[in-house]
From TrEMBL:
Transmembrane segments: none annotated. Residues 26-92 form the RNA polymerase sigma-70 region domain. Keywords: Sigma factor, Transcription, Transcription regulation. This is Sigma-70 family RNA polymerase sigma factor. It comes from Roseateles rivi. Residues 123-173 form the RNA polymerase sigma factor 70 region 4 type domain. The keyword Transcription regulation applies. The keyword Secreted does not apply. Belongs to the sigma-70 factor family. ECF subfamily. Pfam families: Sigma70_r2, Sigma70_r4_2. Gene3D superfamilies: 1.10.1740.10, Winged helix-like DNA-binding domain superfamily/Winged helix DNA-binding domain. InterPro entries: RNA_pol_sigma-70-like (IPR039425), RNA_pol_sigma-70_dom (IPR014284), RNA_pol_sigma70_r2 (IPR007627), RNA_pol_sigma70_r4_t2 (IPR013249), RNA_pol_sigma_r2 (IPR013325), RNA_pol_sigma_r3/r4-like (IPR013324), WH-like_DNA-bd_sf (IPR036388).
Length: 184
């Protein structure tokens, strides 16, 4: 068991036995009252017990001279009120987070019709690319999918910008011919 005067509390062992006894006495005399006060505020037993315990942990960490307290209940309720506000803020934050998650809804898979349409579009794109020379196909993908400029594509492919324009025109002609070929 950790001593209330251990290094974890920030207190030195020289604080003395009297300090421990005073804190123990304060706990015995006021903990039931404090827990009841918190229970009335929270309308719940478990969080009230936790916050009452946290209040005394704060006292322990602050190394408060509990014998010098003129109004111990006022002092305890002030500490507990700060912890209570933190508790409510955490609850509000959690509720907002859960509401946001609920508003996003379940990720939905595309309908079978949409999946078929997307598959058909991908197949048409593949046919277009198959009908182009490799550099023209690559130039088309860089421009349309990656959003690269003709100058950047030219640098990447090691050709002139004019050649990239030629490749794009070739891809567009090929794309326009496909629907006509399919209709025939």
């Amino acid at each position: 068991m950790i001593s209330p005067l251990s290094s974890d509390t920030g207190l030195s062992a020289g604080a003395g036995q009297g300090w421990r006894e005073a804190l123990g006495r304060l706990y015995r005399e006021h903990q039931p009252w404090l827990q009841g006060w918190l229970r009335r505020k929270l309308q719940q037993d478990e969080p009230a017990a936790d916050l009452a315990q946290d209040t005394f942990v704060r006292l322990l960490r602050r190394a408060t001279d509990t014998e010098a307290l003129r109004a111990p209940r006022a002092y305890l309720s002030t500490i507990a009120h700060g912890l209570l506000v933190n508790h409510w803020q955490r609850q509000d934050l959690e509720a907002a987070y859960l509401a946001e998650l609920a508003a996003q809804g379940e990720p939905q898979a595309p309908s079978p019709e949409l999946r078929l349409q997307q598959l058909q579009q991908l197949m048409a794109l593949q046919q277009l690319l198959d009908g182009l020379p490799p550099k023209a196909a690559r130039a088309f993908l860089m421009a349309r999918l990656e959003g690269m400029s003709y100058a950047d594509i030219a640098t990447e492919l090691g050709v002139s910008e004019r050649m990239v324009k030629h490749y794009m025109a070739q891809a567009l002609r090929q794309g326009l011919q496909r629907p006509l070929d399919a209709a025939a």
